Every structure is written in C-alpha cells, then in structure tokens.
C-alpha cells in the first residue's frame, strides 16, 4: 500500500510545520528501485513524477487531490 509523506510546504512567517500548506509529497511503499513524488502545480491540480532505477519520467496526470493522484499511482503499480 502506498502512502504520502509531506515533503514540501509553503506558508508565511514563522508558522509551525503543521500549519503550512503541503505542495509536494514523497510516495512511500513503492517497489525497490522506484520513487515517486506528487506535487501541486499548474494552479491547483496535482501531478505525479516517477523514477525507475534512477531514470526520471515526465510529470503525468491532472488530479483534483493528492489522494486521487496516489490512488492512480497505486493502480499503475499494481498493473505492472
């Protein structure tokens, strides 16, 4: 099962980390040799970036939430 770990946050002033908005997550639980990030880009949509064996692919997808992006990635991983 894949999970999201907050990686990049944005906010103003000296806010506590939990009060900042997350704009990027690292995905945990991928098979060995794979990595992925999910980030909020292009306005308010979320996209997935995968790396296999150190080779980075393009940003893909256009999801309303990070959780939707993670669910799509989970389906891709299960289909491989």
Characteristic key phrases:
single chain, 80 residues, alpha+beta, five-stranded antiparallel sheet, globular
Mean pLDDT: 89
Provide a count of the helices: 1
Helicity range: 10-25%
Content of β-strand: over 45%
The arrangement of helices and strands along the chain is: EEEEEH
The geometry reads as: globular
Q: Widest sheet: strand order?
A: 1-2-3-4-5
The domain tally reads 1
Distance between the termini: 14 Å
- Strand tally is 5
Unreliable stretches: none
Largest sheet: 5 strands, antiparallel
Rg over CA atoms = 13 Å
- Derived from helix and strand composition plus strand pairing, the structural class reads alpha+beta
Q: What is this entry, summarized?
A:
The protein is α+β, with helices and mostly antiparallel strands. The protein has one domain (3-10, 21-79).
Topology (elements, then pairings):
Layout: E1 3-10, E2 21-28, E3 34-41, E4 45-52, E5 55-63, H1 66-79
Antiparallel strand pairs: 1-2, 2-3, 3-4, 4-5
Account of the protein in words:
The chain has 80 residues and is an alpha+beta fold. The chain has one domain (3-10, 21-79). The chain has one helix at 66-79, and strands spanning 3-10, 21-28, 34-41, 45-52, 55-63. It is globular. The model has no long low-confidence stretch (mean pLDDT 89).
């Amino acid at each position: 099962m894949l999970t999201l770990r907050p990686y990049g946050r944005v906010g103003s002033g000296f806010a506590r980390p939990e009060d900042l908005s997350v704009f990027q997550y690292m995905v945990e639980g991928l098979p060995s040799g794979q990595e992925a990030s999910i980030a909020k880009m292009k306005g308010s949509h979320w996209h997935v970036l995968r790396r296999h064996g150190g080779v980075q692919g393009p940003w893909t997808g256009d999801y309303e939430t990070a959780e939707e992006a993670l669910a799509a990635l989970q389906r891709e991983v299960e289909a491989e």
